[in-house]
Structure formats: structure tokens, C-alpha cells
Write a structure and sequence with these properties.
By secondary structure, the protein is mainly alpha-helical. The chain is 48% helix and 0% strand. The protein contains three helices and no strands. The longest helix has 18 residues.
Length: 100
């Protein structure tokens, strides 16, 4: 069975060279003017979205605190931490593990 002959499938029609496509010679000179107005609420929403994006991309690491702790470690101030410091660190670690 030969199905490529059904309804002249695969048959190409010759190109008519006598009809040429001409570029559009006319250009619209002045259609009018458009304007856009952005509401105050939309501008506030955009500002809020930018702030949220900045907060989301910010690091949770406070480099100033890390530097301070490193300096204290270097001076030996954390060699014998108090129970208060140990409890604070344990609580922070527990929270971090739970929130994972």
C-alpha cells in the first residue's frame, strides 16, 4: 500500500514568480501617544519585593561576630567558657538542628 499518493500528499506546487512581495512603503507618522501610570501601591509592592529579595539573599553569617569570637579565642578568653555560654551555645545548636 502506498500512502504518500493520497490527496496528492507530497505534491509541490510551482512558485509563481510573477507576484513579487513589495516592502511597505508607508510608515505611520503619528498614531498617538501612550502613557503608563504606576500606582503608589504598586511602587510600594515593588519596593517590598526588592527588600524581601535582598533579605533572602543575605547571608546568615555575621562576619563581625565571627571576627570577634576568633579574636577572643586567640586571646584565650574561650578556653574555659562559663555555664551561661555553654547553655547558650547548646540552645542555639539545638534550635539549629530542629529547624534543620
Amino acid at each position: 500500500m502506498n500512502i504518500d499518493k493520497i490527496n496528492h500528499a507530497g505534491h509541490l506546487q510551482p512558485v509563481n514568480d510573477k507576484v513579487a512581495v513589495k516592502p511597505n512603503d508607508t510608515v505611520a507618522t503619528n498614531i498617538g501617544s501612550d502613557s503608563v501610570t504606576i500606582s503608589h501601591a504598586a511602587m510600594q509592592a515593588r519596593e517590598a519585593a526588592l527588600v524581601q529579595k535582598a533579605i533572602a539573599s543575605a547571608s546568615d553569617v555575621r562576619t563581625d561576630r565571627v571576627r570577634e569570637v576568633k579574636e577572643k579565642l586567640a586571646r584565650g578568653e574561650y578556653d574555659n567558657p562559663s555555664n551561661e555560654i555553654l547553655n547558650h551555645v547548646a540552645a542555639r545548636l539545638t534550635t539549629a538542628i530542629k529547624n534543620g
